[in-house]
Amino acid sequence: MPTHGSLSKAGKVRSQTPKMDSTPKKSRIPRLRSRRNYEKRIILQRNSGQNWGDRRGRRRGRGRRRR
Question: Domain count of the chain?
Fold first, then answer.
């Protein structure tokens, strides 16, 4: 399979960039996290995970339209 450019240059930029230390991240307070989850699930009635529900079926009905 042909390649675009030589494979000997693969990873050149990543090896040249200086290594940065990661910034320490604080974990959220459990009480606030539970409150945010309560607001999302009970008050806003959103589904858990990435399927929020308000974007479901956006692309449905595209294509041929009735006149």
Answer: 1
> Do residues 5 and 11 touch, judged by C-beta distance below 8 A?
no
pTM over 0.70: no
pLDDT per position as a tens digit, 2-17: 777 788 888 899 999 9
55 belongs to a structural domain: yes
Q: Containing domain of residue 51, as a range?
A: 12-60
CA distance 36 to 42: 10
d(C-alpha 44, C-alpha 54), whole Å: 11
Distance between CA atoms of residues 54 and 47, nearest Å: 10
